[in-house]
């Protein structure tokens, strides 16, 4: 152990340098350096405390003088993170780190990464056509630092929480909403119904737009989940894709995701037609349709590839004459239709599978042109009394 005096701006301090022993965590020799002790006695007391902690195997990670790189902390964090999210979320997170975050920070010691460096990186992501994702990636970086702080690998405030996130500029003009009115939805479906070769796609988008199911839920439904006599479909599972490109069944996204959704007569009729076609195809290849078969089967597995519906949508939009929406937009269209039809909000929440009614109110409080006109008529009628 060495204790020696030094000065900073005329103020005298003591610095401690000492060998503690062999670290049982790494098998390597461990030494420590501590500074800014006002007295020699304080330095000795600090050494004795460190030595006791070390011998009791209680030395905090930040006290071991370990130089952990960002990738080291990320590897620990992602293992814990995996157990807290759905498989599809985990895969998307892995991809974000592999392609965007680790190329920047992986080999840097986590204690040397500055606020300025993170800010510049986020700005670069924003400018490189990643305006939508840069906030999500910045939050991922913050999560790794939060983990490092909790584990004692990093001392101080989270630098990723001190940056300023760039904002998307407001574009003047009318912005098309990510949902269809009932008229627009029917126009989209009519364009698909004219082509017998894509009958399965027509049925898929009809069911999607008239049930409000999530993509993973609709891909997971089996024939046994469809009650043709009572006209409803049961939601009790969801499909995602593993990193090995294999199907995986998960529970619904939320506890409220377990639900039964009523279906209109036309949608039920289309599903019956589709079931007959599936039976006929199975017989042609020497098989029988099972009630445990997926309603929308994949070519190489029981369930359709979750990426296929997006390709179908892109193709359908080319000839539908309707504005572009996402797959999730069909779910929003269903919710908007329920609200427009005057369905009580609690029933809307149940059908959408939301745990919290706030989600139903905040995320799906869309106002259609018809609703605006109805509100105007009601207001005009009131003021004319």
Mean pLDDT reading = 87
The count of strands amounts to: 8
The percent of residues in helical segments reads 40-55%
Q: Tell me the fraction of residues in β-strands, as a range.
A: 5-15%
Order of helices and strands: EEEHHHHHHHHEEEEEHHHHHH
Oligomer type: single chain
Describe the largest sheet.
3 strands, antiparallel
Molecular shape: elongated
Strand order within the widest sheet? 1-2-3
- Give the number of helices: 14
Radius of gyration: 30 Å
Taking pLDDT < 50 over at least 5 consecutive residues as the criterion, the unreliable ranges are none
* N- and C-termini, Cα separation: 92 Å
Would you tell me the structural class of the helices and strands?
mainly alpha
Please describe what this structure looks like.
This protein has helices spanning about 40-55, 70-80, 85-105, 115-125, 135-150, 180-195, 200-210, 215-220, 265-285, 310-320, 325-340, 345-350, 355-365, 370-385, and strands at about 1-10, 10-20, 30-35, 225, 230-235, 240, 245-250, 260. By secondary structure, it is mostly helical. The strands form three sheets. It has a three-stranded antiparallel β-sheet, covered by helices on one side. Strands 4-5-8 form a three-stranded antiparallel β-sheet. Strands 6-7 form a two-stranded antiparallel ribbon. Helix 2 runs antiparallel to helix 3, helix 2 packs across helix 5 and helix 6 crosses helix 10 (about 310-320). The radius of gyration is 30 Å and the shape is elongated. The N and C termini lie far apart (about 90 Å). The model has no long low-confidence stretch (mean pLDDT about 85). Keywords: DNA integration, DNA recombination, DNA-binding. It holds the Pfam family Phage_int_SAM_3. Belongs to the 'phage' integrase family. It comes from Fructilactobacillus hinvesii. InterPro entries: AP2-like_int_N (IPR028259), DNA_brk_join_enz (IPR011010), Integrase-like_cat_sf (IPR013762), Integrase_catalytic (IPR002104), Integrase_recombinase_N (IPR010998), Integrase_SAM-like_N (IPR004107), Phage_Integrase (IPR050808).
């Amino acid at each position: 152990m060495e204790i020696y005096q030094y000065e900073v701006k005329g103020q005298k301090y003591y610095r401690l340098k000492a060998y503690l022993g062999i670290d049982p965590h790494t098998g390597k020799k461990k030494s420590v350096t501590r500074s800014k002790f006002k007295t020699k006695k304080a330095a000795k007391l600090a050494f004795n405390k460190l030595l006791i902690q070390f011998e009791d195997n209680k030395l905090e990670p930040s006290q071991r003088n370990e130089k952990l790189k960002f990738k080291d902390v990320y590897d620990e964090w992602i293992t814990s993170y995996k157990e807290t999210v759905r498989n599809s979320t985990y895969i998307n997170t892995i991809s974000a780190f592999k392609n965007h975050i680790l190329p920047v920070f992986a080999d840097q010691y986590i204690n040397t990464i500055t606020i300025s460096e993170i800010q510049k990186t986020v700005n670069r992501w924003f400018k490189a056509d990643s305006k939508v994702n840069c906030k999500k990636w910045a939050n991922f970086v913050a999560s790794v630092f939060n983990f490092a702080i909790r584990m004692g690998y990093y001392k101080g405030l989270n630098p990723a929480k001190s940056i300023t996130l760039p904002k998307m500029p407001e574009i003047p003009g009318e912005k098309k909403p990510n949902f269809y009115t009932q008229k627009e939805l029917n126009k989209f479906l009519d364009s698909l119904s004219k082509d017998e070769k894509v009958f399965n796609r027509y049925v898929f988008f009809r069911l999607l737009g008239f049930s409000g199911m999530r993509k993973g839920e609709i891909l997971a439904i089996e024939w046994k989940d469809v009650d043709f006599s009572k006209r409803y479909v049961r939601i009790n599972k969801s499909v995602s894709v593993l990193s090995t490109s294999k199907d995986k069944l998960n529970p619904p996204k939320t506890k409220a995701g377990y639900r039964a959704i009523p279906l209109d007569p036309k949608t039920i009729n289309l599903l019956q037609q589709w079931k007959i076609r599936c039976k006929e195809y199975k017989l042609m290849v020497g098989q029988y349709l099972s009630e445990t078969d997926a309603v929308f089967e994949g070519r190489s597995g029981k369930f359709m590839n979750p990426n296929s519906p997006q390709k179908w949508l892109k193709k359908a939009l080319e000839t539908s004459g309707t504005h572009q929406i996402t797959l999730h937009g069909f779910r929003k269209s269903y919710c908007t239709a329920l609200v427009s039809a005057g369905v009580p909000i609690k029933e809307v929440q149940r059908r959408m599978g939301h745990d919290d009614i706030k989600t139903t109110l905040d995320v799906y409080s869309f106002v259609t042109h018809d609703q605006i006109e109805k509100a105007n008529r009601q207001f005009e009628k009131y003021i004319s009394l």
